[in-house]
Specification:
The structure holds 2 protein chains of 2 kinds. Chain A has 11 helices and no strands. Chain A is an all-alpha fold. In chain A, helix 1 (about 1-10) crosses helix 11 and helix 3 packs parallel to helix 11. Chain A is elongated and about 80 Å long. Chain B is of the alpha/beta class. Helix content of chain B is about 35%, strand content about 20%. Chain B is built from 26 helices and 24 strands. In chain B, strands 6-7-8-3-9-10-12-11 form an 8-stranded mixed sheet, sandwiched between helices. In chain B, strands 18-19-20-15-21-22-24-23 form an 8-stranded mixed sheet, with helices on both faces. A 4-stranded antiparallel sheet of chain B has the order 2-1-4-5. The chains are: A mainly alpha, B alpha/beta. Chains A and B meet through helix 8 and helix 9 of A and helix 16, strand 18 and helix 18 of B.
Chain lengths: ~280, ~675
Amino acid sequence: MGVLRRMLARPSGAIGFAFVLLHLAAAVLSPWLVPYEATAIDAALMFAPPDAAHWLGTDQLGRDILTRTMLGGREALLVTLIATPLAVGWGALVGIHLGLAGGRLDDVLMRVVDAVLALPWILKMLVIIVTFGAGVTVLVPTLAFFYGVPVIRVARAATLGVVARDFISAARARGHRPGAIVRRELLPNVLDALMVEGAMRWSWMLLAFSSLSFLGFGVAPPTPDWGLMIADSRSFMAIAPWAAMAPVLALSTLIIGINFVADALAKAVGLDRALNAPH
Amino acid sequence: MKIAGDDVPLIGITDLSVGFTTRAGVVAPVLRNIGLVVRRGETVGLVGESGSGKSTLALVAMGYLKAGLRVLGGGVRFAGQDMLAGDGVAAIRGGRLALIPQNAGQALTPTIRIGAQIAEALRLHSTLPRADHAARVVELLARVRLPTPGALVTRYPHELSGGQQQRVAIAMALAGEPEALLLDEPTTGLDVTTQAHVLELLRDLAASSGMAMVYVSHDLGAVARVCARVAVMYAGEIVAEGSARQILRTPSHPYARGLIAAIPVLGEARLPVPLDGRPPAPGAVGEGCSFAPRCGLAEAGCLTARGALVPAPGGGVVRCRRADAAVRLPMRRDGALRLALEFDGGGGVLGLDAIAVSYARRSLWDQITRAPRDAAPVVDGITLTLRPGETIGLVGESGSGKSTILKSIAGLIGPLRGSIDLAGVALAPRVAQRDVGVLRRVQLIFQNPDESLNPRQTIAEILAQPLGLYFGLSGAALRARSIELLAQVRLGGHYLDRLPAQLSGGEKQRVAVARAFAADPDVVLCDEVTSALDVSVQAAVLGLLDDLRRERRTACIFVSHDLGVVRALADRVVVLYQGRICESGPADAVYGLPSHPYTEALLGAVLEPDPDHAPRLLAADIVEHGPPARGCAFQNRCHRRLGGICATDAPPAHEIGDGHVIRCHIPPATLAAAQAAP
């Protein structure tokens, strides 16, 4: 596939893609790879610095940090990997529709979008979590909903840019059905923007999920989770900095990796098909 | 530093080559061994089609290279100063040597008032004391003949018309009292009447100030009007150079001859002669003459040796081994006369009855209170009948409503009033209400194929849209029909798997033509279909359209701002101003006398590639933001305005015979008498 190849041709794309792949592989394979039980408490080993037995040291309960870090992204990745396509899907559906329909519906709904976007995300999430709890069944639809709202903007803007072009007028004047025009003429031209937006939304969702865990509203202890691990180790930063370092590095490499991919993707699709196709 | 004497040319370009390195590591020259000398006070035209390197050359003359380009050899000097060395160049740029860009609207800063922008140029490039700047700004605006310069200084660029913006850009360039002006297609985006005004201004400036000018343009008419000397560029090199008269009257290079032959002739219904092929891409030029692959005179020797600039049989210098044969090639008046069609006297294939269109969106409050519409509709009272196989030309400047009329016929805009019928059967106002079978019979071709072809679809997919929708074709039948259609627009079947971006402008427009004719339509609506194309390609597309409509007896409404193009193709012509019909009738009658004053102004402003042709500036060069609520649409710019009656009463339609109608308060006989007198 041309887009993927061109994205990987950029250093940022290749590095980002490698980070993301590494994290996905770790998330899938870690149950078979980890050296210890994630919840195995060992009072004798509190705050052990990194050594041959515990490569990344242990935490305040003597649990192996390497084990917990490797397992700590599973929940976050599972939730966001389901929620991201949902968010992009519904956001794109509504955004494209509004871009095409215009008129009063567009005016009114876009003001609603503005209003939702104006509220701080943490407030919106907390209201839902306090009301319905913090399980995966609540987090996935909540994240998908709130993170689909900005996608509406992007999809609508991309649609407006394309519908003004003559090939859409030409298709309308020929008498194609609206569905066929959207599928054949419009979608291929807004897909790029949606792909890049999807990658961005994914990284924001990961951050949001980890922040909720950090605040104690996400994953419940003792399940290993990066946000939770950062929160737990925060108080012991002075005596055991390694306990916080590992989950921070894990989370930031994943976020940076996704952002690199999004960035390289945006640049790659800017030149998609048109320039590099064989002559 | 050397002091420039009279013997030092103002701009001296010697053996200049500029190029870039491709991804494959090959050096691709964009300019090759350019030698050009511009003396003080001289006006030199650089002409060529898109991609010939003319704009690159103008920018290098300022010491500026587009990103990625580098100098491969040779030099550029301005009054002895090396423009390619960094030192001292900044002091010359914008001051002693000023550039006027193609699109002044984009070159001016939108958020700064006109006066402040020109004052900034004064601050940078003038030795005048600060206190005198304000007065000097007004003086400069007056010098470019802008009305009420004192009031203009507080305006913002968007409040001015395109022609006025271009004048402001010229005033800005004049702020530093330059010794030379570089003009990059300065009138290309302007209406004909505005263009004529700007060109006259440039001519007078050159004559009165002793400034040298380098005028870059694809428009031989504009160059003929402004320049004393002309250099023709092709594939990055100068292929012919000489006085404007030598180059335009007796061109000795086959390419120069081809370019001139491709310009439509206003006086007669002739199809221009196309120039086949396309220029080579940078780096794709071989050992021989760069034009040889497209040249009808090319012989074996042309493919191996590039040749030098040698004295030409028609005067000047030329880079051609066959120049002696080239001077006998066909010229403009040798194109085929367009064959008139026989009409069987049956009913029209398309009829418009008193169509009016408005874009004004009424506010909810106005709709509730049923307030009367205050603005006049942008298009009003359009009545015309298109006969089978006939081509009607709709002419007018930007804002004349030509495209709007086509869109309302196609059903993309619902008309405010009036009705449209297709072979006697009323058409629903909007696409959604029309039957697919009805839609098939009316097809639209757009101005810019980059916009009208989906960049993500291959040519096969593009042609499959109408073929699938109207005829249900698929698989092998679809492919066979697509190849047949491509053959009709002179493209090979191998184009099917390409994307629009891989085609040249002319090829893309042919695909757009093929897509329209795929529907086997009764009526084709052509919206400025050649205005985005180079003149040689335009000639080919015009020939193609004429062939297609003759073979299939397809009727056509051909919209254009270019009177020459309409003359080449149209059986009947309708002249529009501000969405109202000024004049209509058979092409010969409309292009002859008597004319509506607006037609007269349009025809007078047309430029010919002839140094002895002077346009006549008739219509007032002012901005109109919409049609007047009452009276004649042309009243504010008319040079034959009678007085009060023009402002109050709609002009009557005078029929002169054979369907020639002029809508003017002045009787046709009076018009004829006034226009016949010089």
